[in-house]
Amino acid sequence: MVTMGIRFRLALAASALAVACSAGVMGASPFPDPLQDVKAAAAGTQTAVLAGGCFWGVEGVFERLNGVSDVVSGYAGGSKSTASYMIVSTGATGHAESVKITYDPNRITYGQLLKIFFAIAHDPTELNRQGPDEGTQYRSSIFYVNEEQKQVAIAYIKQLNDAKVFRRPIVTTVVPLEGFYPAEAYHQNFLVRNPTYPYIVYNDLPKVKHLEQEFPAMVKGK
């Protein structure tokens, strides 16, 4: 079970190895846009649910994007009865630490969210782990809410693999969303509220910096 205290110690042990999530990207060419995308609705917001390791950093990345109005850390992949941090941390619930993103599809598309997911938010070639965190609860997964999201996700993974954007194959799973359960209040907006917490400093702030450097036009206030 990975508690906050253990994450603190793991972060210190891994600090020398902490790098931006795109370290596995081949070459220095721009990260490709999806060739297939979800068509924008006439009005209103849509949601996307993504899992890419500890939800603190993933939330911290997506909440900075133009067109994103809300990001909630939580659990997806398991049942409501086991959707609590202490139980999910055992790795035996089927849940993955996830984020639910509410966004305006007329300002940022589902495909663009996936681009940031793969390019910045995590390393999609790591199986059942991210950085210092290990276990199925830290797996890379896209939880689609409709068939259109499913097809866009599958097509983009194929596009990235065919182009050999990463040195290793992408292991991200694409599965239907059967339920999303918000995490405890102390997990929400954790990066912003705890910018000096060692885990955040070594593992997540580099992602935010990389986002601002690589995609400044997509960042709020830039």
Instruction: Compute the number of strand runs.
Output: 8
Q: Number of DSSP helices?
A: 7
Shape: globular
Would you tell me which CATH topology applies?
Answer: Peptide Methionine Sulfoxide Reductase, Chain A
Name the beta content range. 15-25%
Key terms:
single chain, six-stranded mixed beta sheet, alpha+beta, Peptide Methionine Sulfoxide Reductase, Chain A, 222 residues
Question: How is this structure best described in words?
Answer:
The protein has one domain: 2-Layer Sandwich (Peptide Methionine Sulfoxide Reductase, Chain A). Helix content is 32%, strand content 18%. It has helices at residues 4-14, 55-62, 85-88, 110-121, 147-162, 190-193, 198-214, and strands at 46-52, 68-76, 96-103, 129-130, 133-134, 140-144, 173-176, 180-182. Helix 2 crosses helix 4. Helix 5 links the parallel strand 6 and strand 7 (173-176). The strands form two sheets. A six-stranded mixed sheet has the order 7-6-1-3-2-8, covered by helices on one side. A two-stranded antiparallel ribbon has the order 4-5. The protein contains seven helices and eight strands, in the order αβαβαβαβββαββαα. The longest helix has 17 residues, at 198-214. With 222 residues, the chain is α+β, with helices and mostly antiparallel strands.
Summarize the structure.
The chain has 222 residues and is of the alpha+beta class.
Topology at a glance:
Blueprint: H1 4-14, E1 46-52, H2 55-62, E2 68-76, H3 85-88, E3 96-103, H4 110-121, E4 129-130, E5 133-134, E6 140-144, H5 147-162, E7 173-176, E8 180-182, H6 190-193, H7 198-214
Parallel strand pairs: 6-7
Antiparallel strand pairs: 1-3, 1-6, 2-3, 2-8, 4-5
Helix pairs in contact: 1-7, 2-4, 2-7
